[in-house]
Write a structure and sequence with these properties.
By secondary structure, the protein is α/β, with parallel strands linked by helices. The protein has a single domain, classed as HAD superfamily/HAD-like (Rossmann fold), CATH 3.40.50.1000. Helices cover about 30% and strands about 20% of the residues. The protein contains 6 helices and 6 strands. Strands 3-2-1-4-5-6 form a 6-stranded parallel sheet, sandwiched between helices. β4, α5 and β5 form a beta-alpha-beta unit.
Length: about 180
């Protein structure tokens, strides 16, 4: 079975400026490429697991998201990092418009995107890691049974009841990749 490093996008891969959907607004977080190369060297495949409620809210389209994602994946490739796959949830349970305004099983903290990746790639959750900057990231990992959870300190409210290793930044997180 495959071990995976699951990464949230906004706040982990790119600086979270709120509903980032244009290349010119995309700013990589310090340490992301080094962290990913380390993970690859240790046998992890890299996956992105991201809520994209900006689609439901009408801020940008699925096509615009996919165009930015292709650019992002290519930027990783240029730095010798392969992103195996990107999973996104375009839904929001109560904000936005049809067909994306809906409760779903993919939006974090639900684990639907993780289960889809597991099924498609035969991923071993017991040896996988999830890195995020929101409690909903840690809850999604917990809901999938991923015990190795790393929460990067961020602008979002913490919940000490959620079990996760808490670190200041991605550079500190590198010591937890094993």
């Amino acid at each position: 079975m495959i071990k995976a490093l699951f990464l949230d996008r906004d706040g982990i891969i790119n600086v979270d400026h709120g509903y980032v959907h244009k290349i010119e607004d995309f700013e990589f977080v310090d340490g992301i490429f080094e962290l990913c190369r380390l993970a690859i060297d240790k046998g992890f495949l890299i996956f992105v697991i991201t809520n994209q409620a900006g689609i439901a809210r009408g801020y940008y389209s699925v096509n615009e998201f996919q165009e930015l994602t292709r650019w992002m994946v290519e930027a990783f490739n240029e730095r010798k990092v392969t992103i195996t796959d990107v999973y996104f949830c375009p839904h929001h349970p109560d904000k936005g418009k049809a067909p994306y305004k809906m409760a779903c099983k993919c939006r974090k903290p639900a684990a639907g995107m993780l289960f889809k990746a597991q099924k498609e790639y035969n991923i071993d959750f017991t040896n996988s890691i999830f890195i995020g900057d929101k409690i909903s990231d840690m809850q999604a990992a917990e809901n999938a049974g991923i015990e190795n959870r790393i929460l990067i300190n961020s602008q979002y409210k913490d919940n000490k009841e959620i079990t996760a290793k808490r670190v200041a930044d991605l550079i500190s997180a590198q010591t937890l990749i094993g």
